[in-house]
Amino acid sequence: MRSRPGSAKPILSTAVPSTVCCLKFLPRKGLAPRFWFENMHLLEGRHHIVVPCSPGVAQFLIRELRQLKMPIIEERATSITTKGVFADALKLNLNLRTGQRVLWRLGSFKASDPDQLYDKLMPLPWENLIAADGYFSVTSVVDNPTIRDNRFANLRVKDAIVDRIRRVCGRRPDSGPRRDRLVFYLFWQQDDVKIYLDTSGPTLAQRDYRLDPGKAPLRETLAAALIMASGWNGSKNFINPMCGSGTLVIEAALLAQNRIPGLLRQEYSFQSLVGFKNMDLLEMRAAALRKARPDRKMRLIASDIDPAMVKVAQENAERAGVADVIEFITCDFAETPIPEGGGVLICNPEYGHRLGDEEELKATYSRLGDFLKQKATGYEAFIFSGNRRLLKEIGLRVDRRWAFDNGGIACDLDAYPLYKGSREPGKEK
Description:
The protein is of the alpha/beta class. It is built from ten helices and 19 strands.
């Protein structure tokens, strides 16, 4: 039994055969709101927090973390590591627009084989995370000479957790492949082991507003990164031809109104933790809602030639709570209205990998370039595509380019400043 410094009260006891102990854990003084857990030894103190992201998105994720006052501990191409208390992990889940999930490091240790892995994991107080009648899953990334199939490593982690809870509680939780409850991540590199709690569950790209994703959908996290790359901050117009299911314009509206993704999504993995009180989540959402800015004067215009897709986009916007600030229009992209005042025009045309044919799309890209030159002067245009050959058909010089990945396809976001009277059709750099 361990005791908190300066207190006679135990913070961990293995003698009580119950999933709910009588003590409550409270993060450091000054943190608000309070997150009440029962005897959460594994969640005390400051831990490393890893936030995975898609290729090309890391720089925008770092920007978000810094805005949230989180330190940058390690930068990788597809993940950023920060550090904080458990309340910070919950804050990241609700606030991040570009991160895929939030992984809370439970611990790290050395293990050279599956038996050592089991022996190191089994003594941890898993009963303070998982209810005896609960459910959890395990996933892993393993590079260890004793493991030929990651499923065996996953099984040893499950065995350690189940055996510990059965010993303490007299019952055992269920486990399987579902990712909608508690998920534990094992990272095992040679003999270095790190074990994480996935506090998110389903990817944070799932905002709960896009029930119908449409054809060749753009992930919400990637759409948010594209908007951040454009530099658009809600002060000027936002034009989105070929809007499809509306992901880009909806994410822009949420950003402009300072509405965090956590106001939309209803379920996270951390809600399955033993003793978690949903009232804390409601308090965080209420505080975020008070910071929203619904009265923006810029115009957001989205168009698509397919009336069925415009209907889908409108319904998605209604679920996101931003339908009243977006003007949806059914028309060919070349007929999209462009209001005075300038701003950002961004679109994600088909690029031949999953939809359409490349030869047929050449004419579309050429027409898109003509539309930009003739109707969008005073704006900055951004075209997101996975086909550089087609991008050349735009006929404008590329000012900046960002590389991304969209569903395993290497894509570029090309920027074209369309200053009045200062652009001639030309070749890209």
